[in-house]
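TA notes, week 10

Several of you asked for a full example with nothing omitted. So below is the full record: structure tokens for the whole chain, then the designed sequence directly under it. When grading your own attempts, check the secondary structure regions first.
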């Protein structure tokens, strides 16, 4: 009975370590996207929600919309460059020596790059610019989950506003992962042939 409890204690301790390690690895992998999310999406929406008068809300909305339009245009350009780079990498002739993960990662990167381009274009078209008149209080209410205090941002709206940058970040990670697979596949195959593996 004591050995069973000791085994359970060891498993729970190793499980905690694995969870902490997984959380930190996830945070490190998504750090560029998380910083952009906090700076360009979450904080402007929180500022919009906290304002009380329509003039203040309209001013914060104009700042937020300007940031999001500039971000969407950046995502379109970066996504197009990443898309063409990935397509050109797929035209290389040395895929017979590569691991199957390289083209798989690149195809996934193409899908995410195209998605980021399309979402960025959609946001550029849908977000009003400074010359358009918007009902600031209606937009403020749509950005919140509840009407009672304290107000919190609507998670769906946060997701929609951050989706192009997130898809672009994943496309970059898949491109670099595929490139790493192309570079390291011959090294791993040579090590396996020489008995060093």
């Amino acid at each position: 009975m004591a050995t069973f409890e000791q085994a359970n204690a060891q498993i729970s301790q190793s499980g905690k370590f694995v969870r902490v390690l997984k959380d930190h690895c996830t945070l490190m992998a998504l750090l560029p996207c998380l910083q952009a999310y906090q700076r360009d999406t979450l904080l402007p929406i929180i500022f919009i929600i906290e304002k009380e008068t329509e003039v203040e809300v309209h001013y914060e909305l104009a700042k937020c919309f300007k940031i999001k339009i500039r971000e969407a245009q950046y995502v379109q350009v970066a996504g197009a460059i990443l898309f063409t780079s990935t397509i050109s990498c797929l035209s290389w002739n040395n895929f017979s020596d590569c691991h199957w993960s390289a083209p798989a990662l690149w195809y996934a990167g193409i899908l995410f790059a195209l998605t980021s381009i399309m979402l960025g274009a959609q946001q550029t078209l849908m977000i009003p610019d400074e010359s358009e008149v918007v009902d600031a209080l209606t937009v403020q209410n749509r950005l919140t989950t509840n009407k009672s205090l304290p107000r919190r941002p609507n998670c769906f709206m946060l997701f929609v506003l951050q989706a192009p940058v997130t898809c672009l970040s994943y496309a970059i990670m898949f491109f670099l992962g595929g490139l790493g697979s192309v570079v390291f596949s011959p090294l791993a195959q040579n090590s396996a042939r020489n008995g060093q593996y």
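The chain has a mean pLDDT of 80. Use that as a sanity check on your answer.
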